[in-house]
């Protein structure tokens, strides 16, 4: 027991809050003053907003706490900063209930929308303990550390508010899974890449409109995926094999796709693509991007032309989920550590099988069923849900000699 503790009483503490223009040596000067009093540090927060520093330090209060207060005020004056010293008892109150990370993505993020989200969190009896900016361009992404509410209940409440405010909001339990090595399983058409490969192939057969209509119906879940796929592939009969190479060369990745894969691979993540499309395309994509696993349907080719048939079993809705489980087992991670990303009805089983299912620019029925939805056209925005900031991404790219666009001034 130290000389400032009384048996059975809550320990007295001092909350020291320093504000002013940031400069080198501010934090070290404050702690040099605190060191002379021999106090213990119980908590600390420091942020810098537009070169203005806010430093909060919670310390044990010595017997002669007024002497320490005077010394801290003298130090602050020498730094041309303001300081407030508040005497009280105890540490930060431990809040009952779960802890969550609430990630908010807006383009832009309006003050009214942020206020509405904060209001719903308060309505749940929860508290925002910490706020961090993950990105300010091309989207604004904010991560809230929230305590005092069950994550599932919070997710339900904030999903409704996100729809009202036109935001993307993800709620994840605050646990070690967010920091561990994970497996990311992605759909391909309209997720990893822009557009649908089968429609691009159909353009070579002169039946693109018909194929597009069936594709849309299948993605909305109106017709059986396998039935629709076989019907669409039948229309490709006679298309030369060379068309596959032409389609591959014309593919455009989703904005941010390379950045996401490159960055997360550096952190030890594993990637898989699981597609109702075709292995002749997905295998090349996997090789190009450095993706570890790929699963898709195989087009039958005879004498240099498509036969209009598929070789083997169809990778459908159930097949995608089965592939996810197989890849997770091969990597050695639980399904709770898998992140699945998709946009169509045939992705639903895969999204439900994952620990975090993300509907990416998806149909409404998929957004309603997924854990969260990302509706901005940047695939790398998903990294903000994992606690990785834009600044960290750009710093890693700079070390590797990769030039990234400058933010708007």
Briefly summarize what is shown.
Helices cover 38% and strands 27% of the residues. It is α/β, with parallel strands linked by helices. The chain has a 7-stranded mixed β-sheet with strand order 12-11-10-9-13-14-15, sandwiched between helices. A 4-stranded antiparallel β-sheet has the order 2-3-1-4, with helices on one face.
Describe this structure in words.
This protein is of the alpha/beta class and 409 residues long. It has helices at 26-37, 65-78, 111-123, 151-165, 197-205, 208-219, 225-234, 242-250, 257-266, 279-289, 317-331, 348-353, 364-369, 382-385, 390-399; strands spanning 12-21, 41-49, 52-60, 82-89, 99-106, 127-135, 140-147, 168-173, 183-186, 270-278, 293-302, 305-311, 338-342, 356-360, 372-374. The strands form 3 sheets. A 7-stranded mixed beta sheet has the order 12-11-10-9-13-14-15, sandwiched between helices. β13, α12 and β14 form a beta-alpha-beta unit. α3 (111-123) runs antiparallel to α4 and α6 packs antiparallel against α7. One of its GO terms (biological process) is L-serine biosynthetic process. It comes from Nocardioides luti. The active site is at 187 (nucleophile), 189 (proton donor).
């Amino acid at each position: 027991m130290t000389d400032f503790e009384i048996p059975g009483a809550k320990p007295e503490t001092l909350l020291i809050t320093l504000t002013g223009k940031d400069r080198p040596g501010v934090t070290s000067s404050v702690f040099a003053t605190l060191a002379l009093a021999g106090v213990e540090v119980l908590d600390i927060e420091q942020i810098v907003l537009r070169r203005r520093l806010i430093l909060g330090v919670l310390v044990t209060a010595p017997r002669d706490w007024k002497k320490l207060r005077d010394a801290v005020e003298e130090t602050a004056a020498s730094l041309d900063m303001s300081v407030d010293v508040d005497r009280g008892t105890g540490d930060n109150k431990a809040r009952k209930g779960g802890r969550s990370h609430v990630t908010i993505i807006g383009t832009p993020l309006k003050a009214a929308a942020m206020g509405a989200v904060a209001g719903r969190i308060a309505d749940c009896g929860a508290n925002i303990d910490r706020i961090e900016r993950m990105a300010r361009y091309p989207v604004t992404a904010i991560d809230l550390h929230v305590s005092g509410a069950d994550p599932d209940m919070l997710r339900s409440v904030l999903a409704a508010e996100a729809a009202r405010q036109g935001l993307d909001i993800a709620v994840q339990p605050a646990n070690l899974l967010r920091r561990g090595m994970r497996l990311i399983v992605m759909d391909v058409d309209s997720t990893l890449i822009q557009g649908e490969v089968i429609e691009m192939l159909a353009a070579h057969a002169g039946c693109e409109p018909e194929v597009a209509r069936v594709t849309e119906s299948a993605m909305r879940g109106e017709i059986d995926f396998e039935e629709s796929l076989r019907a669409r592939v039948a229309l490709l009969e006679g298309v030369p094999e060379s068309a596959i190479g032409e389609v591959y060369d014309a593919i455009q990745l989703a904005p941010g796709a390379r950045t996401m894969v490159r960055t997360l691979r550096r952190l030890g993540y594993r990637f898989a693509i699981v597609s109702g499309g075709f292995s002749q395309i997905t295998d090349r994509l996997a090789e190009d991007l450095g993706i570890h696993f790929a699963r898709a349907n195989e087009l039958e080719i005879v004498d240099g032309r498509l036969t209009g048939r598929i070789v083997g079993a169809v990778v459908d809705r159930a097949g995608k989920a089965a592939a996810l489980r197989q890849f997770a087992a091969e990597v050695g991670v639980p399904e709770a550590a898998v992140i699945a990303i998709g946009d169509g009805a045939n992705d639903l089983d895969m999204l439900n099988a994952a620990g975090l299912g993300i509907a990416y620019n998806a149909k409404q029925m998929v957004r309603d069923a997924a854990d969260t939805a990302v509706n901005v056209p940047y695939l790398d925005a998903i990294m903000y849900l994992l606690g990785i900031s834009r600044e960290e991404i750009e710093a890693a790219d700079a070390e590797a000699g990769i030039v990234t666009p400058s933010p708007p001034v």
